[in-house]
Amino acid sequence: MERIPLSIKGLTVAYQKKPVLENISLSVPEGKLIGIVGPNGAGKSTLIKAALGLIPSVAGEVRIYGRPYTEQRRLIGYVPQRESVDWDFPTNALDVVMMGRYGHLGWFKRPGAAERKIAMECLEKVGMADLAGRQISQLSGGQQQRIFLARALAQDAKLYLMDEPFVGVDAATEKAIITLLNELKQQGKTVLVVHHDLSTVKEYFDWVLLLNVKVMDFGPTEDVFTKENLQQTYGGRLTILDRGDEPVIVTTR
User: 129-145 in b/e burial notation, b at 16+ Cβ within 10 A?
Assistant: First the structure.
C-alpha cells in the first residue's frame, strides 16, 4: 500500500460558478496531527467534504493511500460538524457508535457481541460508557461530540477527517479530544482537523494547512504558522501583536 494517506491534485470546487476551492494540491504525510486553518468562507469544511466525495468537484483528483476514495472507504473515519447532524433521530449512543463497524461487517450483516464490545470500549475511551443507552437527543453538545469521536474510533481507520470537533464543547471535552487525537497519532494514524482557535494551533498540531480558497502554505507548524503567513491568509480580518517571532492573536473578524 502507498504510504501517502491523502493526496490531492488540482482540486477545484465551485458554488454557482464561484470557486470555493481553487487548484488545491497537497500530499499529507503519514502519522501526523494536522490542523486546517483559515478565515470563514475559506473552504475548510468544503475541502474535507470534497475529499470524501460528499460534494462534487469541478476538477482535480483525490487519492487515499494511492487509490480512489470509493475503494478505500473503510480506511477513513469522519467526524462531521455537530450542527449538520439530525440529533432528533431516535437512536441511542451505543447504536451510533456501532454504526462505525458497518464498514467492516458490510451493510447486510447485523453487528453482534464482538461489535458491541468494541463500541463499548470506544465509548469508554471518550468517557461516555455510562451513557451508552441514552438517546442522542438528550445529550449535551460536548457529549454528542464525544459520541461521534467514539464512532470514528470504532471504524478503526488509518486516516481521520474531523470537521470542527472542538466547536461548542467545554474545556474538559476539548482536553479529552486532543488527548485522544494524540493517541491516534502515536498509533501511526493520520488526523486532519478543521480548527478555528488560532491560539491553540501551535500546541495541538504537528503540521498546519493555511487555506483561503487556495493553499496559502502547508507544512510543519513551526515553519508555516508565522505572523507573515497568517496576515496573508486572513488579510484585514486578523489582528496580531508583534512579540518577536511568536505571533500573538488578538482578534479575528
Answer: bebbeeebeebeebbbb
